[in-house]
């Protein structure tokens, strides 16, 4: 989905360089998730199964456009 790509690109453009190794690992785990789950998480219909993924989703959602 193009919209998901845009969200992920925003994180890469704005936060990846300053991210810690742990944060980068969480982002990579997020990328392993299925698109339909990601879409529901980013729209707020469902929550990710663990706190780290939930924090990453919220971080990406709140990045400036």
UniProtKB/TrEMBL annotation:
Keyword presence, Chaperone: yes
UniProt xrefs under InterPro entries: SDH, SDH_sf, SdhE_FAD_assembly_factor
Locations listed in the record: Cytoplasm
UniProt keyword annotations, A-Z: Chaperone, Cytoplasm
Family: Belongs to the SdhE FAD assembly factor family.
Role, per record: An FAD assembly protein, which accelerates covalent attachment of the cofactor into other proteins. Plays an essential role in the assembly of succinate dehydrogenase (SDH, respiratory complex II), an enzyme complex that is a component of both the tricarboxylic acid cycle and the electron transport chain, and which couples the oxidation of succinate to fumarate with the reduction of ubiquinone (coenzyme Q) to ubiquinol. Required for flavinylation (covalent attachment of FAD) of the flavoprotein subunit SdhA of SDH and other flavinylated proteins as well.
Name used for this protein in its record: FAD assembly factor SdhE
């Amino acid at each position: 989905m193009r919209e998901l790509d845009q969200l992920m690109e925003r994180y890469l453009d704005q936060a990846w360089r300053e991210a810690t190794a742990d944060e980068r690992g969480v982002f990579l785990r997020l990328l392993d998730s299925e698109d339909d789950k990601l879409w529901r998480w980013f729209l707020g219909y469902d929550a990710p199964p663990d706190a780290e993924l939930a924090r990453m989703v919220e971080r990406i959602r709140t990045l400036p456009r």
